[in-house]
Write a structure and sequence with these properties.
Elements: H1 12-22, E1 31-36, E2 40-45, E3 49-54, H2 57-73, E4 84-89, E5 95-100, E6 105-106, H3 117-128, H4 149-160, H5 167-179, E7 187-189, E8 198-201, E9 204-208, E10 215-217, H6 220-223, H7 225-229, H8 233-243, H9 247-270, H10 273-293
Antiparallel strand pairs: 1-2, 2-3, 3-5, 4-5, 6-8, 7-10, 8-9
Helix pairs in contact: 3-8, 4-9, 5-9, 9-10
Length: 294
């Protein structure tokens, strides 16, 4: 969903050679293709390591963000985050990064239990209170929502050309979110905290992955995850109150949730029914909560 400067898929024989340098005693017993995400090719190595190989030039920047920041965040949270093991350049001059494997299932397909909201809020508070000095610049996440309007409406028009949506309500929510007061300070944020980057185990929150969009910006970008993960409006309000979100922060978070939902709908219509389903759910939740606010 970012740039389309797709690079050639690497030769796995060369990747094996690269891996062998860093796992000399263990050796390479299995290489399992996990999936091709929006930014990376992902492989499970020996059942316990994750190998990520960027697909685009922009993706390389995101991997380098992880290489720089994951070690700084190691041990901060009560839930798992990927632990960087090695990184380097393969014989094909591809950036490769090897991480610990976070066991569990994506919240995109395996719902988080409603009573897990305190774990999410504790994670967010800890992250947002962390030292943001030197955080990577990110022009896509943590920015004022007005900066996203052109992209939002382009996606919105794409979706509404294919399916019916509550167009007037969605536009009203977006305009209110764009008009909400901006935050007085920036925080360290994950930046891409959607369900596919949230790992569950029997409904419990056990991990947060894919940290390439980490940046310093509006924490409401991450608070949008509340609408992406919890279907109970009472739970959503409890989570927002526990975090300490004021009306403006809540409105901006709803805007970010709506942005993600439209992206999910647009992508899901052509590529992945799970994204479409989640996008529909998020849109409905945001519109319902907005109606209760006015």
């Amino acid at each position: 969903m970012r740039s389309n400067d797709t690079r050639a898929i690497p030769d796995l024989s060369n990747i094996e050679s690269w891996l062998a340098q860093y796992l000399p005693e263990e050796g390479i017993s299995t290489i399992e293709f996990i999936k091709s995400g929006f930014d990376n090719q992902n492989y499970l190595i020996n059942g316990k390591y994750l190998l990520r190989i960027p697909k685009t030039l922009n993706s390389e920047k995101l991997i380098r963000n992880e290489i720089q920041w994951l070690p700084r965040l190691s041990g901060k949270f009560d839930i798992a985050t990927p632990q960087l093991i090695r990184h380097g350049i393969s014989e094909e001059e591809k950036l490769c990064a090897l991480y610990s494997w976070t066991k569990g299932l994506s919240a995109m397909t395996s719902d988080l239990k409603q009573n897990e909201w305190p774990a999410l809020i504790e994670f967010l508070k800890t992250l947002h209170d962390s030292n943001k000095d030197g955080a990577p610049l990110n022009l896509n996440r943590g920015v004022p929502l007005k900066n996203k309007s052109e992209r939002f409406f382009k996606r919105f028009e794409s979706v509404t050309s294919k399916i019916e949506l509550a167009e007037d309500q969605i536009k009203e929510v977006w305009n209110e979110a764009v008009s909400a007061s901006l935050p007085s300070k920036k925080h360290l944020i994950h930046g891409d905290l959607h369900p596919d980057n949230v790992i569950t185990d029997n409904g419990r929150l056990v991990g947060i992955i894919d940290w390439g969009d980490i940046t310093s910006g509006d924490s409401s970008t991450d608070l949008a995850s509340i609408w992406m993960l919890f279907n109970d409006s009472h739970i959503r309000q409890l989570a927002l109150n526990s975090y300490g979100a004021d009306t403006s922060a809540t409105m901006r978070a709803m805007g970010w949730a709506l942005f993600f939902s439209i992206v999910f709908l647009d992508y899901g219509l052509d590529h992945d029914k799970n994204y479409f389903k989640r996008g529909s759910e998020i849109t409905s939740r945001v519109l319902s909560d907005f109606d209760s606010m006015i």
